[in-house]
Amino acid sequence: MLPLCIGSPSGDAYRFRLLCGTRRNLGWARIKLVLREPFAEFWDMLITVVFGDGSVAQVLLSAGQPTAPSDNGFGVYQTINWGRGLSIILGTYVAGDSEAYLNPPITFSNRFYLRLSWQRFPIFFMAQFLGGFVEAGIFS
C-alpha cells in the first residue's frame, strides 16, 4: 500500500493535516480525499460518452418520423456535433479538481509525455475504463 502521508505541509496544509495529522478516526474523509480525482475521472468519462452517444441515438432513432418538423426527423448531422461538443464541456466541468483527461488514450499520452505520474496513471486509467463500461451498460 502506498503511504498517504507524502510531502510537506507547505503545499496544501488542510490535506496534509487530514492525511498526516493526529486524528486517525477520519477513515472515510481520507478515502474520499485520496480517491477524489479517480471518481472525477469516472464521472467525466461516463457523462462525456453518455451525452455524446445520446445525441447520436437521438438523430438515428428519430429519422423518418412522420411527426417531425422537417423531412430529416428531429435531428440532423449538426445535432450530433452540438451534442458531442456539449458532452466534452459537461465532462470537463464534472472533472473539477481532476485534470479532465476524459478518456484512456489521452491519459496514456499524458503519461507517455511525462505529464502524469506512474502512481496516478493506473488509477485514472481504470476509473475511465469503468466509466466506459457503466456507460455501455446504460445504453445496452
From TrEMBL:
GO molecular function: glycerol channel activity; water channel activity
Gene3D superfamilies xrefs: Glycerol uptake facilitator protein (1.20.1080.10)
Membrane-related topology note: Multi-pass membrane protein
Signal peptide: none
UniProt keywords, alphabetically: Membrane, Transmembrane, Transmembrane helix, Transport
GO CC term (a single one): plasma membrane
Subcellular location(s) of the protein: Membrane
Protein name according to UniProt: Uncharacterized protein
